[in-house]
Sequence to fold (367 residues):
Amino acid sequence: MVNLIKVGMADLQSSRHPCIITTLGLGSCVGIALYDPSRKVAGLAHIMLPSSQQARNNSNIAKFADTAIVKLVDDMISLGAVRSKIVAKLAGGAQMFSFNDASEMLRIGARNVSASKEALNMLGIPIISEDTGGNYGRTVEIHSETGKLMIKTIGHGLKEI
Amino acid sequence: MATGIDDLNNLQLDVLKEIGNIGAGNAATALAKLLNRKVDMEVPRAKILEFKDVSDTLGGAELPVVGILLKVSGDLTGNIMFILQHKAACMLVNMLMCRPLDEIHEFTEMEISALKEIGNILAGSYLSALSAMTNLKIMPSVPDLAIDMAGAILSVPAIEFGKVGDTVLYIETEFSEGSDKVVGDFFLVPDYDTYDVLLKALGVVG
Fold:
């Protein structure tokens, strides 16, 4: 019996094998999937904003790319993951609406993606694949067996990265 | 200091909810004129939700919905979004085009344009109610429309609320024409430094 774990908006979860961790309907938010293939420990964060430094209320650490990734790595290590073996996959960061004068609000997807990459680089975690940008939503699920990340969309197909 | 939803007291919340009621009432009247039919409206429900529950508001994070977003400028800046289920959007378009109401299909360019106009009229009448009550100058932009998973569309207003707190305020309205119901949600998302402007104009600051 595979354990299906749901991650909400501004939330993060991790687990040992066997599990599937999923988050539904990523828009401008970014899903950061981490995996240690040696120990088969998987983790997924659904972040909404790039940085906890710019926010007035930063009590929810799962909401920001910088703090969520650090917490997720710590959680996975406490489940037995080895820091140097952890790899990352990214999905989401779309721009759902396309006004001409792309304001701060509308470019948030791209900013979330670059902040996530920066935070992963700081921790020395390699990004092995990504499906980011575009103008459509994504549902993602990470499988603890292989670390594959399945991405479902409406009208843009199903893929595995 | 900027005010977020989490910091509001009960009086301020009640006032914001009431604005939602009046705004949605105006929107229903506008819709009735547009469709040239009698449109009934349930009393709108103002809701405050935590992020983790947001994507389930319209029946599931993966359900296809239509989101119409307008930017707001003037004394109050921010965004207003009207979201309805794909099925409900079909029904509205069918009403407008005088076709059988239960016909569901992909939208044509013309229908998308009609939906944008519906969003424009609904959001515009909502904002003019707000403007009349507060004496603030509020101008909506041209609308933009996206059709996608509820979670993805809702992430747009949720992220804006996320900058100041951990909850989302929105107004759920149910329009009905005869026995056909159309449920839509309004999200008024003031930029985070303009909550104070709004509350002050309503006389409920601090």
Observations:
- The mean pLDDT of chain B is 80.
- Chain B is about 40% helix and 30% strand.
- The two ends of chain B are 11 Å apart (CA to CA).
